[in-house]
# Entry
Amino acid sequence: MASSKQQKTMIKGRGAQKLMHNRFFELSHDMRDDFLEFCAKEGEEADKNKTQYLQTFPKTIVNKVKSPDVGMTYSMNMYQGCEHGCIYCYARNSHEYWGYGAGLDFERRILVKKNAPQLLEALLKKKSWQAQTIVMSGNTDCYQPAEKTFKLTRQCLEVFLKYKHPVAIITKNALVLRDLDLLNALNKEGLLAINISITSLSEETRRVLEPRTATIKKRLETVKILSENGIPVNVMLAPIIPSINSHEVLPMAKTVSELGAQSIAHTIVRLNGAIGDIFTDWIRKAMPDRADKVLRQIASCHGGSLNDSRYGTRMRGEGEIAAQINMMVALARKKYFKNRTMPKLNTTLHASCKTGQLKLF
# Structure
């Protein structure tokens, strides 16, 4: 890890350590040294490092997922951008389509879709819509800090419950327990699955990789409480990063198994688009002693490149290191999750709830 002196030079509470130029824009702006010197002399802050919430007005909220590598058919995201600041996050690239950068902009300019519950309800009421599991957080975390203020995730869960429609959640935030009443009601009807992301058992590693996420202790407690309530929990050991958390696969699997998780899933880190530059800049500042080694090992998992978009291999990787990681996960499943599976969600209740009337035929 970085020394205390190096950590002081890093931007506090953020994953990315610099603004990134949007590759779709012709023009860019830089923080020049003479401007920084002027601010220092004047006692002014060159960058206030504040989070902005910006309201957007989408016309739809549920997206069809076309990737064969992702285990979902439909996803929805109430927020774009994510204050959690996970340095490896694949969703960073999507922020460029909104006109922002994939670096600090992704963490500090959060787009809020306040009409998400209304859009969801309109979809579920359509005669043509047939129930299929919709995943909240296919792109960005639905329980990120913005949810404390806007409560859009809770409102959407109320809609799912009203129309008895299956929903899955992906999150790394203990805030999910705030909605335990709705989660229990959905689960009672077989309408809910939850995926909790746990990347490490080390709080030091968590802080540097995922600066504004829930602590490891809180995430483990979340798995335990959800499981005690009979709610099916899959733990995402994702991403596995060689020489950072790759040695923790078996300990993580054992721990979450003992807490009641039904299954585990994993991916091997890939650094597509702008994320390669963001991650490289970050690791040279946060872990300078092992930066070259980690970058080489990541590239070895993806045909010699940090960037891997190939369907079928991009999530699991290839080569010796990837094979070792995948074998460890297979061993963990065999050892700690024998005869455990996530249940298939109930899609039979929704049709009769669109109008409140049961069909005769």
About this structure: Residues 3-8, 357-361 have pLDDT under 50 and may be disordered. The CA atoms of residues 20 and 103 lie 5 Å apart. Residues 49-266 form a domain with the TIM Barrel fold (CATH 3.20.20.70). Strands lie at 52-55, 62-64, 74-76, 79-80, 109-112, 134-136, 167-171, 192-197, 233-240, 263-268.
